[in-house]
Structures are given as structure tokens and as C-alpha cells.
Amino acid sequence: MARTDAVRSERGRVRRVIVVGGGLAGLMTVIKLCEANVPVLLVSLVPVKRSNSVCAQGGINASVNTKGEGDSPRIHLEETVYGGDFLANQPLVKGMAEAAPGIVELCDRMGVAFNRTPEGLLDFRRFGGSLFHRTAFAGATTGQQLLYALDEQVRRFETADVVDDKGVGVPGEKMVHKLELWDFLGVVRDDNGVAVGIVAQDLRTMRIKAYAGDAVCLATGGSGLVFGRSTNSVICTGTAASAVYQQGAIYANGEFVQVHPTAIPGADKLRLISESARGEGGRVWVPKDAKDKRLPTSIPEKERDYFLERMYPGYGNLVSRDIASRALFQVAFHEGRGIFNAETGENEREVYLDLTHLDRGTLAKKLSGILEIYEKFVGEDPYTQPMRVFPAVHYSMGGLWVDYEADSAGNIVVGSPRNQATNIPGLYAVGEVDYQYHGANRLGANSLLSCLYGGSITGPAVASYREALARSAFDLPGSVFEKAEAAEQEKFDGLLSQNQDAKDAENPFLLHQELGETLLRDCTIERHNDRLVEVLGKLDQLDERLGRSKLSDQSLRMNQSAQFLRHLGNMLVLARVIAQGALNRDECRGAHFKPELEEQGRDDENWLRTTLAVHEERGEVKYIREFDYECAGKPVHVTDAVDTSLVKPRPRRYEQAGAASAEAAKKAES
Amino acid sequence: MAEDDKSTETSAPAASGRKVRLEIRRQDAPDKPRTRRWEEFEVDYLPRMNVISALMQIQKNPVTVDGKEVAPVAWESSCLEEVCGACTMVINGRVRQSCSALVDVIAPKGQTIVLEPMRKFPLVRDLVVDRSRMFESLKRVKAWVEIDGTHALGAGPRQSQEDQEALYPLSRCMTCGCCLEACPQYGEQSEFVGAAALNQVRLFNSHPTGKLQKSQRLETVMGPGGVADCGKAQNCVEVCPVKIPLVDSIQHVARDTSKRLLFGWLLG
Hints:
heterodimer; A: alpha+beta; Flavocytochrome C3, Chain A, domain 1; Methane Monooxygenase Hydroxylase, Chain G, domain 1; six-stranded antiparallel β-sheet; 16 helices; 27 strands; about 35% helix; B: alpha+beta; Ubiquitin-like (UB roll); two-stranded antiparallel ribbon; about 10% strand; elongated
């Protein structure tokens, strides 16, 4: 950088980069940046220790092959790509699978309380879409334990002094400065369109403030709240992704939304019961007689339909999530064979997830976290009674489009500023908010891994980008930031004052409920084109009603209604990207399933490509096939082609054991 | 998801006519003590409902039982499955997470449910308090393993199943603040770090790598506000939502600090 000091500006300010979001991906990025001596401003909607990563339960994949099954990164790559129905860019999956054992070792060194084998090594269990014991775990609260370990390492950097180029400490400045309980409003862009900072709002005082940053990285997670209720934390509205999408960032594969087969329905949230329950031997079933009134424990084995094992003998209860959810929906909804409720005389939508045949002590050691959740929220004992579960929206495979750079052998070039870069120069994205690791369907226990791997390549990418900067954000005139701040202030004041005198004003919380009901019904497991057209009509209507909404809270102190109204506006924008993308994509692939096109299935000729959505104006999405963007001063041409150079696309057949990988097939034979 | 609108799973759960009554302690801001007040609300009973879904209903119709239109109640929440610690408040006089407070359990006979903010932390608004002091305490006690870096250095230390089973429960602390709310020694006037942070000292001093900084970590809790300030009321362990053996942890740390105090000069 052409300036006197890389760390301290002329005016004495520390030149930081900004990371927004303090879940696993954000924290890993922060740690990597600090190790490269780049000071960070970490901005988070909640104290980072309360981020949504805590909700991940089952574990993290790494083909360490502790069990001597012949597992390898190659098989991990193949199974991940196959599980994602060939929509993931394969070099990234390769990079992730190869880095996985080292990442898990690193977490172990950080002190994560992983379960152990008798020899004192890390224990691994099975997860969906694989025949191997590949998933390391800490009870059934693995996400929480990993998040805590990274939170602790970031806290170390919160106590570490910033040191300038000459090795002199900068008084009062620490490597990480945190702003917790701040809401991201948008990026600040200079005259060339480069991201040079952010505007955010303190949720306690409602003060809006712009911050300069030599680069900005969003690690803001998924958008489950677009569907009303989901397995996500209530903070996962996708508001940050939507805001930058509206500022010109391209959104990719929005239509791919994972519905997890096993969750507990609730009025406020759909609570996940991890796939690890099946990984440890749990079985899914319904009574063969749809009107069977008996308690599940009184129904003999031969009168139970273990339908996943029947339909997919090769993988049984651990078939990939998209397929398991569809099977549950078929049995419980279309065939009306969900659990019979003698009181109402009707079949519920729920099916049994049964662990009662397993050893109580083992369950307590390996799954207590999720079994406690079931016990607490349902009030039944899952050790002795089969759990009752139903599918729920769980994960956004789609997200902000981001780039990567691979060499000719398909290896990721770590340190390339293109890795995890969005099309807005200086803006990066990583974690669930990006789109690129899971294709059309994510395999279980790959999410924690993709966050950590993503973070581990984002840190070096941002550091390289910063190194190549011609002009630091901290040397820009203050007016750039004042202008952005004023624009956001005006928007916020508008939200507070709009429709205050109107008689028939709308309540944003009720609008959100309607949005959720619409998307949940017509845009999840099964999608029909005529229904999707209606969804888009409904979104037009909700957009119009949003303009007529009014806040019953005018306070400038922790005004959660105002914050929610802003998030709702952003959720409606993302909902359109999801629904329109689903309507356009006329095929069945992974989590995207159209019953009318079941026969035709996947259409590689026309649809083996990334959906690229561009925001036009409110209510308009443009889909493009290619574009150019600039990264660290170099032009890059991007198309929607998917890199399938490492694993050739082929039909998915989970009926056969080992279908997901040629190597795995050998294991199935032996 | 459903083909018809009757699907009970996609639409909001149906109300039965039964009502749930809540009495909520409110205050607009810490510098507005005059706004401190009680407000009462009545919402629909829903199957398996918790305190959070009652508060969510108030957002959709923020009207008190007296028919007064008010601002929705402010509260903190995130995961709603008792692993993040955000939604902690005082419910019917007892500190706990509001997500796991099921109406059927806390008000089985339709009793009024009383919600108040925690008292040991500065108020932000209504049920929201500022718990940042807890995170500062984690800095004070050096609650981390001092790794050399994230570069490849191979596997971590081997650990027996027994040791893992002892450490895992200690590592589940959500920094929710229940133990501090219930502690007679902890408060705005006192320097005491409290059970949560002391448990972290034990956790990291028991970890094979963490214990390499054992004496440094012990020293952080040997002075004012340290482990000696514990009054042994044992309330902490009673209210911990994840059942961390906090009293054991405090005793553990107290024993180690005594040893260090007596023999530290010998050990260097």
C-alpha cells in the first residue's frame, strides 16, 4: 500500500478491516486476519457467543479414518458433490475435504471437548449421505463447543495490542475491537464502487454510524426466518445479505433451501433433532396400519414401516436430507400415514424417530444435548418413548455469489484475493451467507466444516486484497462516510414516522407470519409452478402492505420493532429471489423438487449451472448468465458454468449402498 | 409444504380460546426511572407454548389488558433452544431462560406469569440487561487455551474418555448469567467475578494444554474480586440451566489458589 504505515493512518487511526458476524465463519476469518497482523473491527447482531452456530448439534466432518474403514478426503469430496447433486464447484469441495482433518485437529488443540475413543483419540460417528464414520462430535452440542473455542481465541486477540510497522504499540488499541448488538445496514462504497466501510446501528441507543474498513467481510449466516419459523435462531433473517444484494452484490442459487427431515414443531420455532440421532442408530418409522391407536412401544416390530430403510436400503435412515424429507412428506402428508391421534381421529404430520432400542448410557454420552431439548420442549422421555418429528426449513445452500481461484489441478490457491470475494470490490462473504460449498443439497456435518474452511481461506484472501490496495479507506475524505450515514439515518427516520396517522396500518410482525406461511407451504419440499406464480403475487401484495405498515414503538432505546421492520423489508427481497429462482429452474435437483417434473428429473443440459440473481429495483430480479467484476485491480470474467472437473455428474441412486462414491462402493461390497 | 391450507404444520398453531396472562416489569431506559411500571397482557394459549411465543404474540398485538396500546416488550433472544443464553430473565421470581419456560409447566392452572429483567446487570430496556461484564471477566481469567497458532501442528493431546466426560459439562456454560443473578456476593457494587468465570478457570486448568498457563490463570482470581470473595451460598449451582457443578468448580479453584499462595514461591 502506498502510504506511510500499514497499520496506523496519518490521522492516527488504526486501519482495520471489518468482519460482520461472529459465528464460526466470521470468527475463523478474524483469527486468520489477526495472525496476518491485520487489525479487525468485528460487528455482530448479538454477543458473538450467542451466534447461530450454537444450534449446530451433530458434528463436523473430517475423513481422519480413525475406524480403519478406508475413508479419505477423495471419498469425502465425492460424497459431498454427489449429495449436492453436482451443483457445487468441485475445487472448493476438494479444498474443504482435504483441509478437514487439519481443521478438526486445530479445534482439538483449541480445547474442544470432542468425544474420545478408548485409546484417547477423537471419536467419529456416521452422518447422512455417507457410509463412513467421518463426523467428530462433542456430545450433541458440537456447534456450541466449536463456537466457544473460536470465541475464546478471538478474546485473546481482544487483549492483544496493535503494533504498527515500526513495532511500536498503538496505545489503547487491540487487535480485535468488537461491536456487539449492532445491526448491519449496508456497505459504504467510494466513487469507484469499492467497499470502504459499513453503516451500522447500535441496537441499544439506535445510533447510526459509519465505520471505515479496508475491506468488509460478511459472515452473517442464513435466512431461515424468511420462512417464518425454521430451525435457525431468530436472528437469521438474511438482512445483511439482502442489503448488499440490493447494493449490487450478486445472489446465487437462492432457490436451494434445505429442509431437515427431523424437527419438533413449535409455535415460536421448529427445533432440530440432529441427524446424529440416526447416525447413532435411530430409526424412522410409522405404524403399518395408519389407524393404529396403540402407543408406539406397544406396536410390534413387524407392524412398523421403517420406510427410509425400505425405500433406500443402501443408506437407510442416513439417506441424504433432501431425499429423507421428501420421503417423510410423502408418507405423512400425501399418504396420510403420520402418527394417528386417537383424540382427533386424524393422522398427524409427524413420524416416529426411535432411539429406544439403543443403550441408555451410550445415548447419554453421545446425544444428551438433543435429547434434553426434546425432553424440555415436548415433555416426553426420548430414552423410553420414540420422538415425534416433522421436516423443517434448516439451511440456505444459496447465498451471496463469491469467487475462488484454483490451479489447473483443481487446488485452491490459498491467499488469492479472489477467494470468497463478492462482485463488489472489497466485499467478501463467508459461511452460510455464501453459496459455494454445498450445491443443491448440503450433507450433514459439512456446515461447521464449510464455515471453518471458508474462514481459513477468507482471512488470507482479505489480507492479500488489503496488501494490494492502492488507497486505504482511512485516507478517504470523511464526507464519503457522512453521506452514507445520513442516507441510512433518513431511511430509519422514515420507518419510525411512516403511517403514524393511518387507520388501517399494517403490523410488521403479522406480515412476517403471512410471509412465512406462504413460503413454507409453496416453496419448500415440493414446488409447483402455478403455486410459485401465486407466491410471487403474494410477495407483490406483501411489499405493498409493507409500505402501509406502522410501528407502535417510537422509542430511540432498543427499538426492536423498528429493527424488525427493516429486516422484514429485506426478507421480502430475498423471498422473491428464492421463489422466482424456484419458478425459473425447471428441473429437479437436490432440495429443489417439482412433482410435475419428477419423471424428467435432473436436467444437466439446461440447468447444470449456477443461478445468478441481480437486484434491479424493488420487486424486480434479473437473472444473468455471465458478468465481469474487478478483484484487487484485475478484471475477472465469470459465467454460470459449474466446475465439475473432479467428479463426473451421474444420476443419484441412494437405493444402492456405496452409490455416492466409487471407493465407497468397494466398502459396501466387502 | 402442504397442498391444502388445512395443514396444521404450515399455518400458525390454532388457538383454543384459553388465555394466558402475563405481568411484565417494564422500563423505557435506565435513565428514565419514572417509566418503571408493571403492565399486564393476555394472549392466546397455544399447545406446547413457552414464554417466548407469548411475547411474540404481544408483538403482533401490543395492547394491555386495560386496552391500552403500548410499545411491544423488549427482550433478548436468539436460539430458542437453551444453548445460546440470550433470553435469560426472571420468571415468577426465578432466573432462567424464557425459551424453555413452558406455560404448561410454570402456570399449569392458568396462573399469571410474572416476567422481570435480571437485577444484577445494568438495565437496557424492559427485560433486556447489559451482561458485557461477564465477557470482560472471561478476559480477566484468560479463559482460553494458549495455542501457538492455527497453522498445522498435528493433533491435540490425547485424552481419556473419563477426562472428556468430566470436562464437557464444564464447557457448556452459555454465559447466561443465572449463577450471578442468584449470587448474594455478585452485583454492581462488588468486584466478585462470580461462578461462571471461576468455572472457566477450572475448565482450562484441567485441560492438558490449558494447564500450561495454570499459575497465570490462578493469579487472576487470587486478588480482590477473586475466588476468596465467594460466600458459599451455593445458589449458583441451584439455578444453572445446564447443571454445571459450579460449587465443585469454585472449591477446585479455591484449593488451587491456596496451594499457590502457600507454596507458589517454591514452585516459582
